[in-house]
Amino acid sequence: MKNKLKNKWNESKQHWSLLAIGIYVGALIILWIEYFRGSLSLLGTTLYTFVTPPVLIFIYYIRKSIHQRNIYKFIFIILGGVALGWPIWALISFILIGATWSPFYNLQGISRTIILISTIVSSYSVAAYIFYKWGNKRDFRPFM
pTM of the entire structure? Predict the structure, then answer.
């Protein structure tokens, strides 16, 4: 029984693109039925309809590309920068702008916006640099 499940899993891993297309079509039919029944909004349904195919094509390209290593580096740095940059930005902007005791709490208008944008850019840049250095140290190997 265990070997049958393992063989099925290996088969589905080889044909993941067909499986993904089948799931997409099935979910698309369900979403449009629910839209016409009045359960879902048009925005969510059309967003799923038009955003999912390019995402699937991009994922297929990543898996089959000759530049797979560079794409993995890019994804590792970007996603790591976003994952680490958001908490850094939230902490820095709370300390500088958000708290009542913060130094720039009373600023209004363009100066507050400039500080907010500079904290966003700096925190995400620092986080991406950290992940770049960490990836170089690991030689951008997958976690497997």
Answer: 0.59
